[in-house]
Amino acid sequence: MESKMATKTPSQSVQVYGRKKTATAVAHCKRGKGLVKVNGRPLELLEPEMLRTKVQEPILILGKERFAGVDIRVRVKGGGSVAQIYAIRQAISKALVAYYQKYVDEASKKEIRDILTSYDRSLLVADPRRCEPKKFGGPGARARYQKSYR
């Protein structure tokens, strides 16, 4: 009986990820009434408080009416707090673009994509920079120990 319930209503949903350094955020976007939650908590309760506006940027740029028809749930892990914030905002942006491409129409998806890219490319494209490993003969990746002749 339960399997019939699951197969009867195919839900319109997309799953997208955002990455920054070692932080990974997975956004699950489905039809709903405008909820955006990160690890089960609303965006308004996100810590650190200083970077809260960074996470809300996609919503502030595109306007609440584009998010009104969808629910976005984000799971995030790994990395530091700042890297997680950037991964979350990327996941939210990519989720909305993917949802519009799959279930709405191509024109509105292109419009959203252009708005986001013109504001900040990192909202849709991952930053490939990673930490370089330390080598021998020095305290870090590139710096060498000071040389003394006497």
Please give the structural blueprint.
Blueprint (H helix, E strand, L loop, with lengths): L1 H7 L4 E8 L2 E9 L4 E3 L2 E2 L9 H11 L1 H4 L2 E8 L3 H23 L2 H14 L31
Helix pairs in contact: 2-4, 4-5
Key features?
single chain; 150 residues; alpha+beta; five-stranded mixed beta sheet; 5 helices; 5 strands; 39% helix
Description:
The protein has about 150 residues and is of the alpha+beta class. Helices cover about 40% and strands about 20% of the residues. It has 5 helices and 5 strands, in the order H-E-E-E-E-H-H-E-H-H. It has helices at about 1-10, 50-60, 65, 80-105, 105-120; strands at about 15-20, 25-30, 35-40, 40, 70-75. It has a 5-stranded mixed β-sheet. A hairpin with a 2-residue loop joins strand 3 (about 35-40) and strand 4 (about 40). The longest helix is centred in the middle third of the chain and has 23 residues, at about 80-105. The radius of gyration is 20 Å and the shape is elongated. The relative contact order is 0.18. The mean pLDDT is about 90.
Task: Compose a concise summary of this entry.
This protein has 150 residues and is of the alpha+beta class. The chain has helices at 2-8, 52-62, 64-67, 81-103, 106-119, and strands at residues 13-20, 23-31, 36-38, 41-42, 70-77. Helices cover 39% and strands 20% of the residues.
